[in-house]
Write a structure and sequence with these properties.
This protein has helices at about 5-25, 40-60, 75-85, 105-110, 120-130, 140-150, 170-180, 195, 245, 260-275; strands at about 1-5, 30-40, 60-65, 90-95, 160, 180-185, 200-205, 225, 230, 235-240, 250-255. The chain has about 280 residues and is α/β, with parallel strands linked by helices.
Length: about 280
């Protein structure tokens, strides 16, 4: 069993991006990521801080809007409109979840698709579906990089994705298709999940249930990617996969923490650099 080290791989990606950004700066191409947070959800605050740190590391600017919990949708949409028009802004990111009363759909749809570095806008999702080059949702894009940089060949393999969210499951399945895997998507209504999961050469789990997937779901030698993140009864971080029972069977597996997590921000930075290059 080989551990897939998301920390090391994400660091390598950020270092490559840092070099790219300094090359672009030398040509006078610069820009900033705008991060909008409404309310002060503690987990969101940590993510926002990490995004700012990553921007600083690779050398792009960041502007942040920390708005009070009672911000109106009108006010928020007004800020997005200004940022869409601001040519120094290369990416706009609204930290989710938004407080009750604000429509995530309306807010995300208001972002100019060419600045949607989260890859959530319907235009970018549509481009992904038809195979055009676009911004891809950061977590699934990170999983692809983890697999490739760990020497996993995807073409012709049977990939099973457990979970069908718009942010992870669906784009994950599309990206695996793009890499020529044969893809099965499972979800809460799937009959005989165990039997299907056991057929996977590459099992990607994004179901949101702590330690749900145990050894009974694993084909010996499978590559297991755990997208989940939770706190267990002892307040330790864990994923959707019961690591201790699954690891002995897997050929490669991601740990939680230190697997998929660090890749999300690395791929957000990759999307920002992609936006810079389009200038």
């Amino acid at each position: 069993m080989e551990l897939i080290d998301g920390k090391a791989i994400s660091q390598a990606i950020k270092d490559e991006l840092k070099d790219k950004v300094s090359e672009l700066k030398a040509k006078g191409i610069e820009g900033s990521l705008a991060v909008i947070q409404v309310g002060n959800d503690p987990a969101s605050s940590v993510y926002v801080k990490n995004k700012k740190k990553a921007c600083e590391y690779i050398g792009i600017g960041s502007v942040s809007y920390e708005l009070p919990e009672d911000t109106t949708e009108e006010k928020l949409l007004g800020i997005i409109k200004e940022l869409n028009a601001d040519t120094s802004v290369i990416g706009i990111l609204v930290q989710l979840p938004l407080p009750a009363g604000l429509s995530e759909d309306r807010v995300l749809n208001a972002i100019d698709p060419s600045k949607d570095v989260d890859g959530f806008h319907p235009v970018n999702v549509g481009k992904l579906v038809i195979g055009e080059d676009t911004f891809v949702s950061c977590t699934p894009a990170g999983v692809i990089e983890l697999l490739k940089r760990s020497g996993v060949s995807i073409q012709g393999k049977h990939a099973v994705v457990i979970g069908r969210s718009n942010i992870v499951g669906k784009p994950m399945a599309l990206l695996m298709l793009r890499e020529n895997a044969t893809v099965t998507v499972c979800h809460s209504k799937t009959a005989d999940l165990k039997a299907i999961a056991k057929e996977a050469d590459i099992l990607i789990v994004a179901m949101g249930k702590p330690k749900f997937i145990d050894a009974d779901y694993i084909k010996p030698g499978a590559v297991v990617i755990d997208v989940g993140i939770h706190r267990d009864s002892e307040n330790k971080l864990c994923g959707d996969v019961d690591f201790d029972s699954v690891a002995p069977l897997a050929s490669k597996i991601t740990p939680v923490p230190g697997g998929v997590g660090p890749m999300t921000i690395a791929m957000l930075m990759a999307n920002c650099v992609k936006s810079l290059l389009k200038r």
